[in-house]
Design goal:
Layout (H helix, E strand, L loop, with lengths): L6 H19 L5 E10 L2 E9 L5 H10 L3 H14 E5 L2 E2 L1 E9 L6 E9 L6 E6 L2 H4 L3 E9 L2 E8 L4 E5 L8 H13 L2 H11 L5 H23 L7 H22 L6 H21 L5 H33 L8 H23 L1
Parallel strand pairs: 1-8
Antiparallel strand pairs: 1-2, 2-6, 3-4, 3-7, 5-6, 7-10, 8-9
Helix pairs in contact: 1-11, 2-3, 5-10, 6-8, 6-10, 6-11, 7-9, 7-10, 8-9, 8-11
Amino acid sequence: MRGVNPRPGRFVALLATLLLLSAGAGAHITITGLARITLEEARVTYSLDVVLSQIPAPSAAAIRAATTTQGAAEELAERLRKALVVQADGTDCRSGRIRVQGSRSDQERATLQVEFSCANPPRHLLLRERWDSFLGEHYGTIASLRTGSSSREVMLNEEVSEATFDLAGEAPSSWGDFIRLGTEHILGGLDHLLFLLALLAPARRLLSVIKIATGFTIAHSITLSLAVLHLIPVPSSVVEPLIAASIIAVAAENLWLGREPRWRWAIAFGFGLVHGMGFAGGLLELELPSASLIPALVGFNIGVEIGQLAVVILVYPLVHWVTRPQRWPGLVKVLSCIVAIAGTWWLLERLFLA
């Protein structure tokens, strides 16, 4: 009698460990700050918004202390001066007043603001920042330079630490940066990835995979667009728990039926509407001017699709191969159990710990 190949057991054990560890660490593993840079003649104001729960605990404590203690404020101000460099036409601008304040609507957010004085109104503005030692090695900034009614967006991190803005010329298209942002958003969002895994794991035919992926894509593109254009509200206190609930629902359905539901593409579409509102959060926080909304929306959506397609191409064939009858057909249920546990953790965390 032919036995079951034991090697898939090692595969699922490793996958289970990685997923559960990631679930405990939080759904989004990429730390992102939002910087708004404004110009007024020869004065440059840099305002960075960060979520304190996402950055290293000592740094979050230092920021909180700086809002109440003079000594801590001076120490943080010195960190900011070392982390930031602004140059106008090749000459360093002098850092001046520094402010640290919490958000009025969210005590877990803080704004770090630094004013720079330049010798003359800049024609070429260089921004350099090195936050990795303070805000974490996986930290990145979405920097938005506001000039009149338009804006220019760039992404900065430990690999790309500086950007130059040509203020004399036309604003370049920022699609590339938003494509990258969209790709990183879905690849760094374990909740969205596990939802996709749960959706696709029982699918046995390529046509089913195409229909599921298409339904999810169309749905989240609709709500992402409507939310970014401010046509529908996106309360994170409602959207984030719903995303976790969608993960539990799909995983539970896999366990209950033991096969691919006939209307899985419709389920993907319905829950995709919710996930689209979750995708919109990153763009809404930028508060982009109207002229920048459409390029940002198109680029971000393309990036999300690139990340989603990469997951489908890389992960689904592997899962499909391992779940063949002669290997381990029970893998779908094991994966669904792991996904259900992770989704339950996120639901409880978002309902009671947020």
